[in-house]
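wait is this the right file?? whatever heres the structure
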């Protein structure tokens, strides 16, 4: 075991979250969408990544998208579509993801975002995103009941906060949140969603009077280790 600060951990470095992992997994398997709330640097991403791997081993199609570097709606929804394809989910006939990504890359510069281990350049000021979002909706609507799918979105509030500062930002934020609600409805019980981040999505929407866009989420919290568990952790590190 290594003492890792500032990045997510996995394997032998993942410690002491078995109960939280079981609770989160049970909620997802029951068909709930989860908003994972916790202070910074307490292990939200590590917990979600472990759940993604556990569910993969159980036959789920599961993946995590880190969207903190995304700056536009089209880049955001393109990243989700790419993650679906990487996870082995078939896209509608005629939808050319590679061509779409090439178009995005030609128009965007700078930042990068990751999905399922694949990195693409994303950014810019594109407003034509509805067609990409509609592709997602079509895919999620037609997914079979098995295997089930988990979509985990990390740092969504950072993307939304950046979007809120643009021209017509509040309207654009509302549009994205409404369409994400639409996508959750499209997936039904076949698709579970987890959202987490260093900024709480519940706080973000409450401050803007948009709580109704996420009232289908079950809120779960992640706290600090108990004193006993913290001591065990330090002993394990010392060994």
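ok assuming it is, sequence goes like this
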């Amino acid at each position: 075991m290594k003492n890792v600060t500032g990045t997510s951990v996995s394997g032998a470095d993942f410690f002491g979250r078995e109960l939280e992992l079981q609770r989160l997994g049970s909620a997802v398997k029951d068909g709930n969408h989860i908003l994972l709330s916790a202070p910074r640097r307490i292990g939200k991403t590590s917990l979600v990544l472990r759940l993604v791997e556990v569910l993969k081993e159980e036959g789920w199609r599961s993946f995590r998208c880190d969207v903190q570097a995304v700056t536009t709606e089209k880049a955001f929804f393109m990243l989700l579509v790419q993650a679906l394809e990487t996870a082995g989910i078939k896209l509608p006939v005629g939808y050319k993801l590679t061509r779409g990504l090439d178009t995005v890359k030609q128009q965007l510069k700078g930042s990068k975002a990751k999905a399922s281990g694949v990195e693409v350049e994303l950014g810019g000021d594109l407003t034509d995103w509805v067609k990409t979002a509609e592709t997602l909706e079509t895919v999620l609507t037609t997914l079979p009941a098995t295997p089930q799918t988990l979509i985990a979105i990390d740092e969504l509030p950072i993307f939304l906060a950046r979007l809120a500062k643009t021209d017509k930002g509040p309207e654009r934020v509302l549009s994205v949140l409404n369409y994400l609600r639409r996508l959750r409805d499209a997936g039904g019980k076949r698709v579970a969603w987890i959202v987490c981040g260093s900024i709480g999505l519940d706080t973000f929407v409450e401050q803007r009077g948009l709580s109704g866009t996420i009232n289908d989420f079950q809120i779960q919290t992640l706290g600090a280790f108990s004193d006993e568990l913290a001591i065990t952790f330090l002993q394990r590190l010392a060994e």
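Residues 98-127 have pLDDT under 50 and may be disordered. so i think its the right one actually
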